[in-house]
Amino acid sequence: MKADNQDVKFIVALCIVISLVGGILGGIVFSSSNNTGNNFFNAGTSKTENVQVSVTSGITEVVNKVSPAVVSITSEHLTRGFWGPYTSKSSGTGFVVTAEGLVITNKHVVEDANASYSVFTNDGTEYPAKVKAQDPLSDIAFLQMEKANDLKTIDLGDSDELQVGEPVIAIGNALGQYQNSVTTGIVSGVGRALPVGDSESGQVNSLDNVIQTDAAINPGNSGGPLVNIRGQVIGINTAIDQSGQNIGFAIPINSVKTALKSVQSTGKVIRPIIGISYISITKDLAKKNNLSVNEGALVYVSGNSPALKPGSPAEKAGIKENDIITKINDTKIDAKHSLSSTVREHSVGETIKITLIRDSKEMKVDVKLEELKQ
Questions:
Q1: 3-class secondary structure for the chain?
Q2: Residue 208 is among the residues annotated as catalytic for this protein
Q3: 284 is catalytic
Q4: Which of the residues 91, 199, 222, 341 is marked catalytic?
Q5: Catalytic residue among 135, 139, 208, 214
Q6: Is 268 left (phi over 0), alpha (psi -120 to 50) or beta?
Q7: What is the pTM of this model?
Q8: Where in this chain does the record put each PDZ domain (predicted)?
Q9: pLDDT in tens, 341-369
Q10: Domains plus CATH for the chain?
Q11: Distance between CA atoms of 198 and 208, rounded to whole angstroms?
């Protein structure tokens, strides 16, 4: 038993020595690792690196590129009230398309013939301006800045290439006081139709084939550009649906290009017409009226306007009320290609071939386009 007790004491003593030695060595290793930066327990955290984070993104690059060509438009005119005359003011937005100061905006921004207009560039420079031309069929107008030169201009894109879900940026003079405000969103829909008035000169006076976006469009933004991620204008911000949220509309830039070309060559917007009133056919309309097709344009009486304007190109060609126009040349009339917008792609004096359905039979007629008299 005595021998056993000695063995036990020896083993205990040996354990204590081993523990002390292990602790000393561990302390040395730990200290060494701290000094050399190779700490096992904090691996990878001992190095210090300076990282620069840039806030520049695709959106900021587009804004920097486009903003110098976006302008604020103000108008003033003398109004007579109960207490006497006073000056009434309004505002909108536009964008510069020539270095000499030709500006595209909405017609409703500059519709007052008795008003005086001023254009403010992004750097605050003020230019007097005059209305150069207005589109008789759409909410498009052109202003000419006076004594302007070497101005920054904006690139025009291709609105026919737009895809639903594509990111877009709206820039404008929000609420008439926040110049060049920027909002972002996506293309929520294409080929929308917005009724904006009565039929005039045998044409339905509406905004058709417009772009829907959820980018915020506020009062004062009217006439401003809706641009894609490449910094190209693909639409003119025009209207909002006040019954909903984030539902804005823009006129496709491709429908503006023909007007711009006309203004630059003749000084006015010349639009061709065929001289009819119509309603765009949808699946619901076709079902309710037992129509033979789900797309196209139904020649139809609109309000006080007849289906065909007397003496119009359509009447001369033999088109009749209740005919369904399905094609112009090779372009199919559908949600993305309305009758009015397709006609506007052609020129006055040009003869187009119209495919139509009458009494369930397809036929084709030639129509020579005439100028819409303003």
A1: CHHHHHHHHHHHHHHHHHHHHHHHHHHHHHHHHHHHCCCHHHCCCCCCCCCCCCCCCHHHHHHHHHHHHEEEEEEEEEEEECCEEEEEEEEEEEEECCCCCEEEECHHHCCCCCCEEEEECCCCCEEEEEEEEECCCCCCEEEEECCCCCCCCCEECCHHHCCCCCEEEEEEEECCCEEEEEEEEEEEEEEEEEECCCCECCECCEEEEEEEECCCCCCCCCCCEEECCCCEEEEEEEEECCCCCCCEEEEECHHHHHHHHHHHHHCCCCCEECCECEEECCHHHHHHCCCCCCCCEEECCECCECCECCCCHHHHHCCCCCCEEEEECCEECECCECHHHHHHCCCCCCEEEEEEEECCEEEEEEEECEECCC
A2: no
A3: no
A4: 222
A5: 139
A6: beta
A7: 0.74
A8: 272-360
A9: 899 888 899 999 999 999 999 999 999 99
A10: 65-145 (2.40.10.10), 156-263 (2.40.10.10), 272-371 (2.30.42.10)
A11: 14
Tokens of 214: 């959820």
The tokens for 101 are 């100061």
Percent of the chain predicted with pLDDT > 70: 80
Residue 265 structure tokens: 């060559």
Active-site residue (options: 108, 201, 346, 347): 108
- Which pLDDT belongs to residue 25? 40
Residue 35 pLDDT: 46
Catalytic residue at 338? no
